[in-house]
Amino acid sequence: GESVGLHLPTLSVQEGDNSIINCAYSNSASDYFIWYKQESGKGPQFIIDIRSNMDKRQGQRVTVLLNKTVKHLSLQIAATQPGDSAVYFCAENIRGDYKLSFGAGTTVTVRA
Amino acid sequence: NAGVTQTPKFRILKIGQSMTLQCTQDMNHNYMYWYRQDPGMGLKLIYYSVGAGITDKGEVPNGYNVSRSTTEDFPLRLELAAPSQTSVYFCASSYSLEKLFFGSGTQLSVL
User: Fewer Cβ close by (within 10 Å): the C or N end of chain B?
Assistant: First the structure.
C-alpha cells in the first residue's frame, strides 16, 4: 500500500488567507520529500523539497515543515491567491531507492 | 529547452489494440519515469530508467513495456489494451532523483 498519504482530499481557502496542506508518511527510511502542484490538464510542477536532516524550508510564499517524530510534513502557502487553486501532491524517496512515491493529492480551491 | 515532450496528447484505443506513448527530453537527464494517474488519485509508477539501456519495474508494470535505447527517449508500449489502462500517463525526467520534470501527459481511453 501507499506509504505517503494526505490527511484531507479537499481544502477550500479564502483568498488572502494562509493554506496548510498536510501529508503523513509511514516509512522511517524516507529521507527526501517533495511537494508538487498540478493544475487542471497539466503535469505536476515542482514547488519545494526538503531533506530529512532539516525541519523547515522556505521558498517564495511557501514553507515546508517536516516532523520526523510523527512522520508528518506540511506545505504552507502564504496569502493564497486564485492561481494557487490546484491539486497538491507530496512525494517521498526512501534512502537508496531510485524513485519517488506519491500520495493521493489534496485539491485546493481558492474562494474570491 | 522544450523540457519533456509527450505524444500524443489524446488517444482512444479499442480493446486489444496496441500503441506506443512517446516521451523525449532534451535536458540530458539520466533518470526517466512513466507514471499513470487515475481520476482523483495520485501517481502510480509504471516503469523507470536510470540511464540508457537500463529499465526497471515500478508499482504497476503489468500490461506495459519500455525501452531506453538513448538518453533522450523513453517510449511506453501497450501491447493488448484493456479498459483498466484508461488513464492519464505522465512521463518525467530528472538529473538526479530529485526534482522530477513532468511532461503534459497523454490521456488514453480504452473502449
Answer: N
